[in-house]
Design a protein that fits this description.
This protein is α+β, with helices and mostly antiparallel strands. It has one domain. It has one helix and four strands, in the order αββββ. β3 and β4 form a beta hairpin.
């Protein structure tokens, strides 16, 4: 009996190479997906740190307003911050004045004030602008800001708009602005 040599066609080798190519493509795709997810998570963390920094600066500004008054005084006793011409006593229509906060040079001490609270992970303390809006004088029945549900009394409130900016941990992606209206009862 004669044994015949079978000719190898290389099908097994070809299939192995195709499978190896598919597994390599799958691995590369997984690495890319993981990298994108990591960048997204880092951006979210950056924005959260920036938000916390802006909130801390906002609270610093409100404390500055609250504790910079002399008991019984009806006018502010601290320096307003903000771009020239956009803050100060007597700007009754300031709430309608537009300041381009996104393009403002926040690092210039003439435009904003650095907060005193530093948030862990933030590249710098948040900065804020305090703008005087107006005095609101209440009548006997219309002003009850401090004691909800208690005796209503006459008085006045100095109203301020506070805008704060916080930055994340320096990647340049996280910048958050927050704004509040704050009233100081006198």
């Amino acid at each position: 009996m004669k044994l015949q040599k079978s000719r190898q066609q290389g099908v097994v080798l070809f299939m192995s190479l195709v499978m190896l190519l598919l597994l390599t493509a799958l691995g590369a795709s997984s690495i890319q997906t993981t990298s994108v997810q990591f960048q997204m998570a880092q951006s979210v963390d950056d924005i959260n740190v920036a938000f916390q920094s802006a909130e801390a600066a906002l609270r610093d500004a409100e404390e500055s307003i609250e504790y910079s008054f002399i008991a019984g005084a009806t006018q502010q006793m601290f320096t307003l911050t903000g771009p020239a011409g956009n803050s100060g006593i007597g700007d009754a229509d300031l709430i309608n004045t537009a300041i381009e906060f996104a393009t403002l040079d926040w690092d210039d001490d003439n435009n904003s004030t650095a907060g005193t609270t530093v948030v862990d992970g933030a590249s710098e303390p948040g900065r804020y602008i305090v703008e005087y809006i107006r005095e609101v004088v209440g009548t006997e029945d219309s002003l009850n800001l401090t004691n909800i549900g208690e005796e209503v009394g006459a008085g006045g409130v100095s109203v301020y708009r506070v805008t704060a900016r916080g930055k994340g941990f320096g990647t340049g992606r996280g910048e958050v602005f927050v704004q509040s209206t704050y009233g100081k009862v006198w």
